[in-house]
């Protein structure tokens, strides 16, 4: 396995950054995860747009031109002989003596890895997965893909300890924001596909954006609005979206079956539409 660190390719096992990197000390950085499927990077431009936006919001400079980064991604894939993988990109504010304000003249650090694509198991796809609810205790700028992920980690761990696949994060007003590493969707009792609109409360998932487009093109009834956990528990269907899971049906919320308790036709259809889009 080969990694890329600040201009150098080398064995992943030996790749390292300085202990005073601000990513390590302050989580002062951002990341992206791009899926490689059948040798092609999925939604590459969308991920790079979001990477640039996250950096801009934190006033970290792009460590290299976009074209150069695209070249590094391809080189890394080639060196790893990968065809189905997740390319991880992390940019931090750089190395400096530990002090909260932005350091003067710090050079952003950039790290890329290429690891196997963790695909949902055939069983998860056939039967759907369980989610549990957890309070959303994250900060107010969830639209930035920050490497500061403690609340997400704690929520995911709680899910795994409860035998569930994902945690749905719930605001104090009872609405679901998103999953710990996925966006959240329901098909309401009245047959409307609902997902939360873009705001600072959620990460604008690249998969979410693409699923919205596909649903619009397929003329599926659609509303971008917040929904409550209660509404989700009474929904006909529920599913999650992300670069690695694509569209994955949810058949249990907090131990309660969703709809018939089996993956619904809409989630299946959207997954197929997405797979067709990726292959096109
Ligand atoms: N929401 C959160 C909090 C995430 O961390 C992720 C992805 O890692 C997503 C949603 C899904 O985003 P994408 O579709 O771009 O993978």
UniProtKB/TrEMBL annotation:
Keywords: Amino-acid biosynthesis, Branched-chain amino acid biosynthesis, Coiled coil
CDD domains: D-AAT_like (cd01558)
Coiled coil: 41-68
KW Coiled coil (keyword) present: yes
First-tier enzyme category under EC: transferase
EC number: 2.6.1.42
Short name of one Pfam family: Aminotran_4
UniProt pathway annotation: Amino-acid biosynthesis; L-valine biosynthesis; L-valine from pyruvate: step 4/4; Amino-acid biosynthesis; L-leucine biosynthesis; L-leucine from 3-methyl-2-oxobutanoate: step 4/4; Amino-acid biosynthesis; L-isoleucine biosynthesis; L-isoleucine from 2-oxobutanoate: step 4/4
Taxonomy, superkingdom: Bacteria
Reactions catalysed, as given in the entry: L-valine + 2-oxoglutarate = 3-methyl-2-oxobutanoate + L-glutamate; L-leucine + 2-oxoglutarate = 4-methyl-2-oxopentanoate + L-glutamate; L-isoleucine + 2-oxoglutarate = (S)-3-methyl-2-oxopentanoate + L-glutamate
Keyword Amino-acid biosynthesis: yes
Summary of the function given for this chain in its UniProt record: Acts on leucine, isoleucine and valine.
Family note: Belongs to the class-IV pyridoxal-phosphate-dependent aminotransferase family.
Name listed for the protein in its UniProt record: Probable branched-chain-amino-acid aminotransferase
């Amino acid at each position: 396995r080969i990694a890329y660190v600040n201009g150098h390719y080398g064995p992943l096992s030996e790749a390292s950054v300085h202990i005073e990197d601000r990513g390590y000390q302050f989580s002062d950085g951002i990341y992206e995860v791009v899926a490689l499927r059948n040798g092609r990077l999925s939604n590459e431009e969308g991920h790079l747009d979001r990477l640039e936006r996250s950096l801009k919001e934190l006033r970290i400079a792009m460590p290299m031109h976009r074209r150069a980064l695209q070249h590094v991604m391809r080189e890394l894939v080639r060196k790893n002989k990968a065809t189905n993988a997740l390319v991880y990109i992390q940019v931090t504010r750089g190395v400096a003596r530990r002090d909260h304000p932005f350091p003067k003249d710090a050079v952003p650090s950039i790290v890329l890895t290429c690891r196997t694509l963790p695909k949902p198991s055939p069983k998860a796809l056939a039967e759907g997965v369980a989610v549990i609810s957890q309070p959303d205790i994250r900060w107010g700028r969830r639209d930035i893909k920050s490497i500061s992920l403690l609340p997400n980690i704690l929520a995911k761990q709680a899910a795994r300890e409860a035998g569930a696949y994902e945690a749905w994060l719930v605001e104090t007003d009872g609405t679901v924001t998103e999953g710990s590493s996925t966006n959240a969707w329901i098909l309401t009792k009245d047959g409307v596909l609902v997902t939360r609109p873009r705001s600072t409360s959620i990460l604008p998932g690249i998969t979410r954006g693409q699923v919205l487009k596909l649903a619009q093109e397929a003329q599926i009834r659609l509303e971008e609005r917040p929904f409550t956990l209660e509404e989700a528990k009474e929904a006909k269907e529920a599913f999650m979206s992300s670069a690695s899971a694509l569209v994955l049906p949810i058949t249990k919320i907090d131990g309660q079956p969703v709809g018939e308790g089996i993956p619904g036709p809409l989630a299946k259809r959207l997954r197929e539409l997405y797979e067709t889009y990726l292959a096109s």
